[in-house]
Amino acid sequence: MTSGPHFDISIPERLNLTTYVLENNITRGRGDKIAVSYRDETYTFRELCRLTNRMGNILKDFDVSFEDRVLLVLQDSPMWLAGWFGIMKIGGVATHAYTYLKEDDYRYFMEYVRPKVVIADETTLEKVRAGARGSRYPKAILVAAETSPKLEKDEYHLGPLV
Q1: Which residues of 45-83 form beta strands (DSSP E)?
Q2: Which of 22, 15, 50, 21 lies closest to 58 in space, CA to CA?
């Protein structure tokens, strides 16, 4: 009887997906290659890594650390990617909710996920805000918006922070 194929895959005991996907591409000389195309813009691995590092540092400024959860409620975009990679890079736990949910769904996510921070965009802010009312979570909502949104207590416009 013969055994199946043998794969020699060495997986390190500690693996940071952000390092693997972004920084390894830069190290291998692909930093100026396109990583993401979004609408009429492109982002190289280097640009996406820079945006990711900014997001990670912003999250650290909001006291997000190892194993803290962050809920992303953003349209698919480079900001979503940078948030996701940034959360993982600092050791946080990236969670995601769709942008078309109702405020009761977001209320459920606040209690179930218990995010320290939520990153939302203009299309979801009102429903996320309503879902967070009365909850201990999140401590802050970061709002990804083209223009300055009207913010409430513990809400911050992400644009100037980035």
Answers
A1: 69-73
A2: 50
